Amino acid sequence: xxxxxxxxxxxxxxxxxxxxxxxxxxxxxxxxxxxxxxxxxxxxxxxxxxxxxxxxxxxxxxxxxxxxxxxxxxxxxxxxxxxxxxxxxxxxxxxxxxxxxxxxxxxxxxxxxxxxxxxxxxxxxxxxxxxxxxxxxxxxxxxxxxxxxxxxxxxxxxxxxxxxxxxxxxxxxxxxxxxxxxxxxxxxxxxxxxxxxxxxxxxxxxxxxxxxxxxxxxxxxxxxxxxxxxxxxxxxxxxxxxxxxxxxxxxxxxxxxxxxxxxxxxxxxxxxxxxxxxxxxxxxxxxxxxxxxxxxxxxxxxxxxxxxxxxxxxxxxxxxxxxxxxxxxxxxxxxxxxxxxxxxxxxxxxxxxxxxxxxxxxxxxxxxxxxxxxxxxxxxxxxxxxxxxxxxxxxxxxxxxxxxxxxxxxxxxxxxxxxxxxxxxxxxxxxxxxxxxxxxxxxxxx
Length: 446
Prior knowledge:
Helicase, Ruva Protein, domain 3; Rossmann fold
């Protein structure tokens, strides 16, 4: 893992001279102020951040907002002792920092703290996922999602219609966007349409547009959604909900690449690739007479199936982590991540609502959780059951409670890290790892 440290200071812009010795073992990126820090963090991950708050002139509210948005680094603060007299300042350090130091600076101790922070960051570090390497925004590395990414890259190079099937909430629109963005039409528009969300009386005019005077109230002509996608791609989500009478018009467009606006008498050429999706298998809808067979075969040229979340359980932790950090500004103060029992509960859940359900549960839990780590009940999920496997998990749970009690009782007694490690018979690094595991943080008394 990189030994990079993002050092954020207020004015003056130079790093304090006696700070150099403390950070000499690290690759330091200096950012004078929050704007420079935000710019430095674009596209780059810093495992550790150092906040030098001696001459801080930006509002603490803005600093709090910044740290909530950028919660992945392990933050260490350095400031004057009198700053602790301010309750908002103490709260900010408590909420966002793994440790703090005060002046006069002990360079060796600060270097040691930054090393520990780097170690804590390494414990939670995940290697880059495959989609980051390929430029696709489909999180995960399970065999199912890896195969889907490979298929997307293959079909993106063609210009034939694509039919995507998957359960509700699996991310069919995300797949459609990935196809468009990796195709030769990437510079053109991507127009998504939910066929089931448009009232039946308006579908014709919304899709194909209309001429002036086509009906009462049509004071001017309007370009339809299909026409607006010319040069790019049109995504017809839940195409199985399209009324039968309009399916014939769509078939004509696929065959001739032209449309007729409502009230119009001339054909309008449209160069748009059609990507369609449905949570209903259209072959079954054809058999029931709910979908035109000729349209089905026109669409069913290149097909993709988006796996359900229960078929890619190995991706659940990384998906949950991505959602957790995406909504960092919403979550409750002090919430740091997921407990091991929450991760097990998520992995054992069947996710009938798929990724959409995961997003909603994690987003709600991050707001409502009371502790440092999200628990199964915060996600409104049951803890793992009492099967033979669950019995082992119950033993793990008891061990975790014993570990947490032993750590917390000694910290509450005011013992030093060295004394606690000696009592428990572990190294200081192991002790810091256990504290991170249980969401326990100790404010250093300088």
